[in-house]
Design brief:
Length: about 425
């Protein structure tokens, strides 16, 4: 396999690391993207994505001469599609980018080539949509070219480690496609390569993210119940998770990012009348930002005119990605309700310190559990504020310590009368 040429379509969170990794393993890689700006930056060895160690890997790939990038399609032996599949307003998958990538490949596809779809898609997309676009008389899967779905499973923030160490699902349209795709991934994956068919691989990927979404929804629902009945959900979760077969996820202000808040809808799309729990879990998680706004309203009494310092804007801790961030939904809603919001984010908005922003403020609202926020000092912050009030939506503030310094602490999921 090595020495073969690979074209990676889509140089985003998944495509760029994959292209760079393959280039450092000796493949001749051509990164194709529709965004000229992205391609220009990469030619200079600069990345548009913030992820630990990615810069170094991209630079090594470009300097080795094995990674070139461009916007014009070229023939290759292997094509990897890693383009986004967002969800539309009507909660169905937007496959426009996948279809466009497949049409691009169809223009240069030749006998013996391997096409791999990595993008997350509704079950059946590889076998119906992608295959349908690629095939033409005399060039069909199994009798001409090879086609497989190998979903990406990397966790933003730990992407380069997981790209190599995670097990990988390899789902070919036929046996030959599965074997060829497995050989490709064997060049850089240290985890196990698990072979299956394309539609199973598609469902497996959706099941993984749906499993996480439903479990976060369960934690969020218990947070609401705990608030109602006067229990501290964080303590209850800690205790329930002591059971050898129970492991809770964490409640929070909602689920963001471009995967977990999107992918479950692709399952709903496949079987709407059956995917009842999955759809409800999505709704539970989507309702959390509004609940947080109510929590803040209760804590400050009146949102109109209140000066609120929000801590965190990204979709989760210690990344600089703000896509689908529930923190932004909360911030926007607080502003709409008339609050003066001063934003801080330890990853993306650091111009002014929390101490500066806290001057004469009525509340601090912690929306993202960035590591840096564990170092916040209530002793310095309290005296600067109009009211020493902390609303913690991630359960990370040491309540007793903050209360000792005169703070009132309201925690998501903590019933009012718990001590
Ligand atoms: N969240 C909670 N409570 C938790 C865990 C997460 O509220 O206990 C929230 C986060 O704050 C965030 C959202 O969920 O807003 C999603 O964060 P995440 O860390 O769970 O997931 P992602 O979207 O960064 O990455 C997921 C991963 N999937 C799984 O863990 C099953 C990753 O492995 C996938 O590759 C990625 O989706 C993807 O691209 O599909």
């Amino acid at each position: 396999m090595s020495g073969r040429s690979i074209c990676v379509l889509g140089l985003g969170y998944v495509g760029l690391p994959t292209a760079s990794m393959l280039a450092t393993r000796g493949f001749h890689v051509y990164g194709l993207d529709v965004d000229e700006g992205v391609v220009r930056e990469l030619a200079g060895g600069r990345t548009h994505i913030s992820e630990p160690d990615l810069d170094t890997l991209v630079q090594a790939a470009v300097q080795s001469g094995n990674l070139r990038c461009g916007t014009v399609p070229e023939p290759a032996d292997v094509f990897i599609i890693a383009v986004p599949t967002p969800v539309r307003e009507d909660r169905t998958a937007d496959l426009e980018a996948v279809s466009a990538a497949a049409r691009t490949i169809a223009g240069v596809l030749k006998k013996g080539d391997l096409v791999v779809l990595e993008s997350t898609v509704p079950p059946g997309t590889t076998a119906a949509v992608v295959r349908g676009i690629l095939e033409r008389p005399g060039l069909r899967v199994g009798a001409g070219f090879l086609l497989a779905h190998c979903p990406e499973r990397v966790l933003p923030g730990n992407l380069l480690v997981e790209l190599v160490s995670n097990d990988r699902i390899i789902g070919g349209i036929d046996e030959g496609s599965t074997k060829a795709a497995a050989e490709l991934y064997r060049s850089f994956v240290m985890g196990e390569l698990i072979e299956t068919d394309a539609t199973t691989a598609e469902l497996v990927k959706l099941m993984e993210n749906t499993h996480r979404d439903v479990n976060i929804a369960l934690a969020n629902e218990f947070a609401l119940i705990a608030e109602r009945i006067g229990v501290d959900v964080w303590e209850a979760i800690r205790l329930a998770s002591r059971h050898p077969r129970v492991q809770f996820l964490r409640p929070g202000p909602g689920v963001g990012g471009h995967c977990i808040a999107v992918d479950p809808w692709f399952v709903v799309q496949a079987a709407p009348e059956l995917a009842r729990l999955i759809a409800t879990a999505r709704d539970v998680n989507d309702a959390m930002p509004a609940h947080v706004v109510e929590l803040v309203r209760d804590a400050v009494d009146r949102l109109e005119g209140a000066v609120i310092v929000t801590l965190g804007r990204t979709y989760k801790a210690d990344v600089s990605d703000v896509r689908e961030s529930p923190a932004i939904s909360v911030i926007d809603a607080l502003r709409r309700a008339g609050a003066e919001v001063r934003e801080h984010d330890a990853m993306v908005l650091r111009k002014r310190s929390v101490e500066e922003l806290a001057g004469q403020a009525d509340a601090l609202v912690l929306l993202v559990d960035h590591n840096a926020y564990r170092e916040l000092d209530p002793e310095t912050l309290g005296p600067r504020m109009n009211k020493a009030l902390m609303v913690d939506t991630r359960g990370v503030i040491d309540r007793k310590a903050w209360e000792r310094h005169g703070f009132k602490v309201c925690t998501l999921g903590r019933g009012r009368d718990t001590r």
